């Protein structure tokens, strides 16, 4: 028990210490969170009328962000599979960072659901035993279930592993591996169930296409790793954490397959809509060409496509994939492409035109940006804190006192 | 771009006839181990409530710990109703009666709408607003929406206009297509709701417990008829226009942050009266009755006219029928 207390104290010390850049970053995050709190207070008093959502477009920016972040979280499997199933060492050394990213992304995703609720004080009504969850019929109950399970799993895995490494002990394979293996299907199902949340609604033809869940997974495998690749480079600069180039290139290679799939599925969907040209075409048309003078989304749609295509080309050619400048440009582009696609391109056209054929053009208000900024602030803060604790443990500079001068283990996972 | 297109507001008062409600019969399928659930909730909620209750106004511990409507015992229900009445009194300075009268055996409501007669005057829209205590302005909530359509296109939503403004109706070349909750037999909204805050009653009315709804709006995304409306802000309801004859699952004043919808005027029809929209329609385009009664008006319509349902391909099986009488 005293060991745990010691560990917690050590963690707090780790988080509080840091150079000027670190302090400035933390201050910046706190400001973002502050803006978020102020905006949210305004929303809580006035009601969701302070957003630009209305009956015709009743889910929008918040839910778009939620969807994107679930994708980022799900992408951790792209590291977990090569690391644990194929025992590929370069990735095994960084997989824990992927899991930390998943935790932070899930925290943000859940917060976005909370800020979107009209009555967040009643959140317990959805909880098993305490409330009356509509299970198994409602997709949102499923979503709450898988997201929380995935969050719990990742937390247990990461904390267990870090604590063991901190103590200089080996993790117990019999506990660890089953949980890791379980986390693979759970992570896929988080994004699948999120897709089903939209997919299952016959009232919204734009979402009611069976290709939706595969498209979600494909785009998640582009956007999540894009964030990771950039983070890895930052971390190895900041912490002298040895992340091998091979690990990054392997992830980039996997991403190029995912991008191909993502673009192919998009093409398949566009073909079906434009060639058959039934009344369902309207929604797709609203996104890509606008309807009459209603063209708010069109520039975003094409921008997103351009980002994705350019990024795909950069990732496809081995020379640009292995050049860090072009690789990073590709990451930013793919990230932007998927963010726009999920944020603006998925949710809004689902509602436009409305079920009664009316067009209401939505753009987020400043308040919505503020609240979203706050949520991102909390997520980044979570990630920063987790990394600040995890990396020193992984590189061996933060150890239980009695072990500090013992054998110096190599970076990354203790190899059993 | 205006974020909120709205229609002219009608506020002239000719209050609907008042009649006191009696029944306080609990409805639904009966309690499901309410005691255990309540205990668990009390235990878990203690800490959470303090933080959260302060976020949205008007939350108190009693509300927070309340059970799902269907789990309330008759005694608890009585208390809950008394509380709503007390709150109405405080907020509007007016005495109200809030009933929770349940579905009557052998009754299943059906609605008929004669498209060849409807002239698009929107009287039904405003009668509904008044009867059901909807928010008048900012936000303006209408449970009935009347679409103006081109005769040459037929029922075609891509050419439908909800916000038509006309000096005189009907306009040449146009016809009118009112839409409200179709009380689906296979309601997508009920399936989508994560908390069972909305359900279908035995007499066919799809209801919402406003004190159980978490405001997630899944039901709005799922409804193919745009029949569900969210309280984006606290409803704007002038005290002098409050309809004091209320039903717990129908026209009692709603808080902000929850969803509401047409309930076939549950407070009227369970007392054997017509809905407000049927009563007000100047051309008699609206028919209402008990589908299980062969003598009812709605059954006559179904037997002698060719009826159709809206968005039939979605298999929601509405209890709301459209027909052309002429
Ligand atoms: S019309 Fe809409 S609100 Fe009414 S039952 Fe059908 S889906 Fe539900
Ligand atoms: S908004 Fe309310 S009624 Fe609608 S799905 Fe959510 S909890 Fe259920």
Automatic annotation (TrEMBL), chain A:
Pfam families: NrfD (PF03916). GO terms for cellular component: plasma membrane. Keywords: Cell membrane, Membrane, Transmembrane, Transmembrane helix. Its main location: membrane. InterPro entries: DsrP-like, NrfD-like. It is found in: Cell membrane. The chain crosses the membrane at residues 21-40, 60-82, 94-115, 144-163, 175-196, 216-235, 247-266, 300-317, 329-351, 371-395. The keyword Transmembrane helix applies. It is a multi-pass membrane protein. NCBIfam families: DsrP. PANTHER family: POLYSULPHIDE REDUCTASE NRFD, PTHR43044. Belongs to the NrfD family. This is Polysulphide reductase, NrfD. It comes from Anaeromyxobacter dehalogenans (strain 2CP-C). The lineage of its organism: Bacteria, Pseudomonadati, Myxococcota, Myxococcia, Myxococcales.
